[in-house]
Amino acid sequence: MTRLMSGIFASVAVAAGVYGYAALQGGTSLPSNPLIGAAYAQEAEVDTSTIVEMVQGAEDAPVTLIEYASYTCPHCANFHQGAYKQLKQDYIDTGKVKFIYREVYFDRYGLWASMIARCGGPEKFFGISDLIYKGQSDWARAGGATEIVDALRKIGRLAGLEEEQLEACLQDGTKAQTLVSWYQENATEHGIESTPSFILNGKKIENQSYDAFKTLIDAELDG
């Protein structure tokens, strides 16, 4: 999935009216729209140090692999159902690779999915992310904003999150705006323009097959 980072807010403000209309028409409470707030507050300083990095693998692993991904990106879903599982088994779980997952927000739906994934803390993050990617074709096409957020709530409940906990996470506008600022800082630092993108020991690489990842990682290990 390739989209220009500079266009992240381009359609969000236009959708604000529709978003508000959906919230009034349905009985389900929709999250606040932090992308709009963040768009209007670009000059304000946001403390992004409160955002927890989601990490798997040994802290002192010789290789660090950072993935930049969006929950609404089909290529990211394919990676997580394919190459990622092999990488986890062969490199992450064996202490050879420290894996860091960083969210990219192209739209409010991806942001809401991120807020659900993070709602259970680091212990549940990757398990919930797996459920989100497995069900991407269903929840992302559930309908309008109300239907999509309901489908994401269902995933959260399936992962063992309580309803009040889910609502508190989804309605945390400050956290959402901080996540957006955090994403922008990271994307700017590493020049991220598409998802999934990867940083392998400080070097940017594109999405590729497991065998290609293996070759690159092995070269770093042999280093």
UniProtKB/TrEMBL annotation:
Keywords linked to the UniProt accession? Isomerase
- Isomerase as UniProt keyword: yes
Alphabetical list of SUPFAM superfamilies matching this protein = Thioredoxin-like
Q: Kindly give the InterPro entries that the UniProt entry links to this protein.
A: Thioredoxin-like_fold (IPR012336), Thioredoxin-like_sf (IPR036249), Thioredoxin_domain (IPR013766)
Q: Looking at the record's lineage, which domain of life comes first?
A: Bacteria
What does the record give under GO molecular function? isomerase activity
- What are the residue boundaries of the Thioredoxin domain, all occurrences included? 24-154
Similarity remark: Belongs to the thioredoxin family. DsbA subfamily.
Task: State its role.
Answer: May be required for disulfide bond formation in some proteins.
Identification of the protein by name: Protein-disulfide isomerase
Species of origin reads Phaeobacter piscinae
